[in-house]
Amino acid sequence: MLFRTSIRLQTAFDRRFAEFGITAQEAAALLLCAEAGETSARKLAQAMGRDKGKITRFVDRLEAAHFLTRTRNPQDHRLLIIKPTRRGFRAVPRLRVIFDRLQEQLFDAILTQDIDQFASLLSHLYDNAARLRAEKDT
Length: 138
Prior knowledge:
The protein has 6 helices and 2 strands; from the N terminus they run H-H-H-H-E-E-H-H. The chain has a two-stranded antiparallel ribbon. The longest helix has 26 residues.
C-alpha cells in the first residue's frame, strides 16, 4: 500500500508541476538551490537523499529549461556551482504555493494527532530504509 500510495502521490505532484515543464523532484531541487543561493551537486544530493548521478540529471534538465545554471568554482575548477537563474528565482514562489496546496489537500480531513503519528511512523520507515540501503551497498 505504501508503494502504491507513493506512485499516486508522485503522479499527482508531477501533474501539478507540468505547467513548468518539470517534475516534482526537479521542482524540489530548484527550491533547495534557491534557498541556498548556490550549491553543489554533492550538497543537493545529500539534501534530497538521492545519488549524485540522479541529481546531475535533474540539474541537466533544469539547466536546459533555463531554471538553473552551472559555473566552475573559481577556487577549484573541478567543482561546479549550481545557481538558479532569474527564471528559476521567479518560479520559486509559485512552486512553493503548489507544494503547500498539495500538502494541505493530502492531509485534508485528517486529524492533527493522526498526522503527527504518521510523521513519526514515516521517520522510522525512512531510517529503516536507510539501513536497508546501507546493507545492500555492503
